[in-house]
Amino acid sequence: MLGMDRALQKKKYQIIGDKRIRTNKPKIYACTHVGSTDISVFYEALKDHCYWFWGDIGEYYRKIDGLLVWLNGAVFVNTRDKQNRRNARNTAIKVLNKGGNILIFPEGTWNITENKPVMHLYTGAVEMAIESGADIIPVGIELYGNTFYINIGRNISSRNMKTDSKQQNTEKLRSAMASLKWAIWEHQRQSSRAALPNNISELWQKHIQKMCDEVDFPIEEVYRTMYAYKPDLELSQVKKN
């Protein structure tokens, strides 16, 4: 069904790398996030069952997609509520402890920045791995035209991870995801800076707005669900003043 839906949308995908190591451990697939349809395209390409860590509960009520996600298996979370986020994380840990896998986008929302391969991550993926013993598999996803390019990294063991170092391990995960995405960029045909249009920033912003309008997802909501990284907030306040 995912393949049929992708074909109707005239989307394609290409896996440029897959370094997964076979394991009997549960797995947490931690993916970069470039838009509304990357989750279903990646899941089709993955060929491994996962419960989706689903952040937009409203999607379940509004579209048939939500029903399909529920049938597949999902952990729904209300990102606006701190206690609900904690409950969802605990539910995901139960799934992992029973041998299930989790598919999560630890950036929390689409990466609509102009210059960050991967935004700062929520620590939930690392916390789940520590408490369940799951492997984390980083994934880089990028979209060029109608084709998604997917780069699946090597398993990251949680064996030596500690709760008091979850932030450091989250940064290591972010670095691994960024390296995978960088490899996708290098896989593409290179162009010179002079070949880029002068209004490329404006074109990018129009692309993001169009993507938000297509799925009725306000751009303000994208910003709201980003991880609130303190140094970025402080820098933003300095610029504002």
Write up what this structure looks like:
The chain has about 240 residues and is α/β, with parallel strands linked by helices. It has one domain: Glycerol-3-phosphate (1)-acyltransferase (3-Layer(aba) Sandwich), CATH 3.40.1130. It has ten helices and seven strands. The chain has a seven-stranded mixed beta sheet, sandwiched between helices. Strand 6 and strand 7 form a beta hairpin. The radius of gyration is 18 Å and the shape is globular. The N and C termini lie far apart (about 50 Å). The C terminus is likely disordered.
Compressed to H and E, one letter per element, the order equals: HEEHEHHEHEHEEHHHH
Main β-sheet, spatial strand arrangement: 1-7-6-2-5-3-4
How much β-strand is present in the residues?
Answer: 15-25%
Number of helices: 10
Number of domains: 1
> What is the CA-CA span between the terminal residues?
51 Å
Q: Given the C-alpha coordinates, what overall shape results?
A: globular
Specify the structural class: alpha/beta
Tally of extended strands? Answer: 7
Give the biggest sheet: 7 strands, mixed
> Helix share of residues?
40-55%
Estimated radius of gyration: 18 Å
Summarize model confidence as the mean pLDDT: 83
